[in-house]
Amino acid sequence: MTSAPLAARLTDVAGPLFFPVTAYGPDGAVDLDAFRAHVRKGVDAGAAAVFACCGTGEFHALAPEEFRLVVRAAVEETAGQVPVVAGAGYGTALAIQYAKLAEDAGADGLLAMPPYLVVAGQEGLLAHYAALAAATSLETVVYQRDNAVFTPETVVALAGTPGIIGLKDGYGDLDLMQRIVSAVRTGRPGEDFLYFNGLPTAELTGLAYRGIGVTLYSSAVFAFTPDIALAFYRALDSGDDDLVNALLDHFYRPLVELRAKGRGYAVSLVKAAVRLEGLDVGPVRTPLTEPPAEHIEELAAIIADGRTLLEKHRAGEAK
Fold first, then answer.
1. What is the chain's percent helix, strand, coil content, to nearest 5?
2. Residues involved in catalysis
3. pLDDT per position as a tens digit, 46-60
4. pLDDT tens-place string over residues 99-155
5. What does DSSP assign to residue 249?
6. 174, containing H or E segment
7. Strand, helix or coil at 194?
8. Which residues neighbour 124 within 8 Å (Cβ) at sequence distance 6 or greater?
């Protein structure tokens, strides 16, 4: 854990947010050595933060002690270079237990996942996240998606809750997000509340989210091709529309279309891509399943096309 507040460290970042997969060995147990190698590669490539044991990291599949060990490995491997944020979820009691494990492991913050299964009202959701934020000293980002979708008024209340520093949006309703941003801006003027684009392949909607002032985003692509993810990030940040549009057309859109071909591909396809790139992180745990061979071949071709496009772009710049 680093001494600087998480909110300050995430306010002005210079790279994508890295959501590593959790590695498993041949016996199905967590492979901490492979996980450390995965985290180190991402940090060395320019990740702005490491979000361990979140959605891409199969939070749902990890026992509490496994969770603690993986978060601790991320903290040790990053050695304070970038902040480490850990997932926390399920019902309030279990979410608090995972939050305390993350704090004990040295994490810098929490990504609060939606409550398990139940569809709660806004008052109950607010009470849940307030209790979670109060349970540790860790700063908390609330994840909006699935059964945890908030009204603008609820987000204003979240923004005023001690310990809650931001909202990650995995729901994708831009009209709602614009109203949320506006409501917090007017309801809590001067509040430094952070917003994150948390859709499964956030780069595809990066231009749209930037239009409402949301520049932070999670990058699943960074987990397997950090070179492509970082090139896109820099092109988006610098206004290089030609490269942004080329990558959207020939890499990100085909990737999203492939992801739509299978359930759970937001995780299992990413893990397959990490293996394609040379690091054996094992398969996903059930109830997720592995992509079939034809989808792996399609994935490899998409990655190759992305790299070819980057090479052509760099060659053009060198002329």
1. 55, 10, 35
2. 143, 168
3. 999 999 999 999 999
4. 999 999 999 999 999 999 899 999 999 999 999 999 999 999 999 999 999 999 999
5. I
6. helix 174-187
7. strand
8. none
